[in-house]
# Entry
Amino acid sequence: MKKTLSMAASLAIAATCAFGVSLPAHAADTTGTATPTGRSLPSSVDTSGMDPQTKAIVDKIQAELPADWESRLDATRARYGLNESPWSEIRDSVINPGDSPCQRTELTTYASSLLDGAHPGIVGNLRFYGGFDWASFDALISGTESKSNTFGVNGEYTQKLTAEAKNLKRFWDIDSAGIQVIPMHGKDVLSSPERLAHTLSVMYGNPIDEAPREWALGLAELFIELIDSDPVLQGGANPIFTFNAFAYSEKGDPEPMGISDRIVMGDGILQGMAAVGLGDVAPKGIMSHEFAHHVQFQKDLFESDLTGPEATRRTELMADAFGTYYLTHARGESLNATRLLKSAKSFYQVGDCSFTSSGHHGTPNQRLASSSWAASVANDAANQGHILPSLKLDELFEAKLPDLVKPDAG
# Structure
């Protein structure tokens, strides 16, 4: 299975594990209007309220997709390791108001405003067909590290994240030379028929024996036309399309796809953090958390006796701890622990309360407890210049874990 992890605070978003993104292939409500192929669209994507021109676009999309598109999409998600993440849980709660995070915060309130005024039928159709995954999936399969890359809508995080990546590679005791940091810009993907066509051809496969490129290109043009029909979606620039960040690795995978180790940073999550006043600290927090997942990949730290939700929670809380250890360490970012944890309290509140879910990332209290503990490990060390080997830090974390989960054991 592919390994993708997104952060919950990555901070919660999340990789990947998160392919940080994955929306369900279909909505939970299966009652609704019949499609030309006999499938049923959920009531949330009922097209009855659409103007004739927009409805015609939706009808063409339905006619172009193969009858087995859902199973194709599910297979692709499984093949590439697309899993739900805390960031995508926030996003999904916006797209489908029936899905709610356990706690309202400034960040979830901001996310909820992103689709104000959008046509529910258009949003529902995009969700139904996986449209809110397209930018993330493009970054996964096509993104590459380049000196010309920019981070943030206007490139405002380019210097900060580029420097952060270099610092993280120097700090941790892993072979990190091949880890790429890749931006995710929604409009770049969702305004380019050629680029979106490539993504669609991978996500849905090429169901047409003849001229598969033309089929995918035609479908991409229809989807772009649908997005452009609603000004709230901003031609794909709405932050909802890139409200994600995740780490990805194929280490130990029996069927590697040939994708390099990477960390993907979406414009949307960076915009969200800036909107709630965390634009200075959160990008570093997200990056350090996602890089911690790469430490886990290389040191085989995903292995444990825990299973189900407890196993995922352990993985994410460890990434929170490792990330904070780096951020507060004298040879890391050397950030003031009090200030950092005050900020962390704001963005770790996107922790989830899905105690029985295999995607459980830890509650807000547990996430903050992990960060607070790691900050004390860094700050209380007798030798401030010594960086603990990752396996030693893991040993300390494993011993502390029972205490870290006590506040909200569920």
